[in-house]
Amino acid sequence: MITGLDHIAVAVPDLEKAVKRFLEDFGLTYEGTEDVESAKTSTAFFPLPPTSIELVHPLNGEGPIAKYLEKKGGGLHHLCFRTDDIHADVARLKEKGYQFLADAPSPGAHDCLVIFIHPKSCDGVLIELSQPPAGH
Ligand SMILES: CC[C@H](C(=O)O)C(=O)SCCNC(=O)CCNC(=O)[C@H](O)C(C)(C)COP(=O)(O)OP(=O)(O)OC[C@H]1O[C@@H](n2cnc3c(N)ncnc32)[C@H](O)[C@@H]1OP(=O)(O)O
Ligand SMILES: [Co+2]
């Protein structure tokens, strides 16, 4: 079951500059950066309860964010729903015809299990589902 809006992600061409903006200009709390090798993405999180802002930037200049930045320069990249049972939600949504970008969830930031739904399945919005590790 989907239980909340885990984060809203913004793709940024200059991570350091964007971190400074969200920290100093907007005054948000900076949790730190985390490189997610499997997603070829560097992330920076700013908790803003009950959700967070995630900045995403290409890790080593490669991956999906690099392609996005090439085309758009930056912008709102995805919404992430928190789920308490990612496998059940994937099965339920596949049954309804949603196209997933992987066969199975994989590790994301914060040791969560994540999977993405193609934007074409959701009126042009890229959706991530994320299940926190047990006990979180
Ligand atoms: C997992 C770590 C971390 C976390 O929270 O834990 C992250 O969130 S990492 C985030 C980075 N990872 C991903 O984005 C994985 C999912 N994304 C992809 O697999 C690709 O980006 C994909 C399939 C959405 C697009 O890749 P493709 O190679 O098909 O790129 P195109 O440029 O050809 O795009 C095709 C089509 O999709 C539109 N598009 C692309 N990105 C987005 C987006 N973020 N939001 C909305 N639409 C998007 C693009 O404009 C093209 O549309 P078209 O009408 O055909 O021009
Ligand atoms: Co995300």
UniProtKB/TrEMBL annotation:
Organism in which the protein naturally occurs: Parahaliea maris
Lineage, opening ranks: Bacteria, Pseudomonadati, Pseudomonadota, Gammaproteobacteria, Cellvibrionales
Swiss-Prot/TrEMBL keywords: Isomerase, Metal-binding
GO molecular function, one term: methylmalonyl-CoA epimerase activity
Major enzyme class: isomerase
NCBIfam families per the UniProt record, alphabetical: metmalonyl_epim (TIGR03081)
InterPro entries membership: Glyas_Bleomycin-R_OHBP_Dase, MeMalonyl-CoA_epimerase, MMCE/EMCE_epimerase, VOC_core
Protein name: Methylmalonyl-CoA epimerase
Domain of life where this protein originates: Bacteria
Stretches assigned to the VOC domain: 4-132
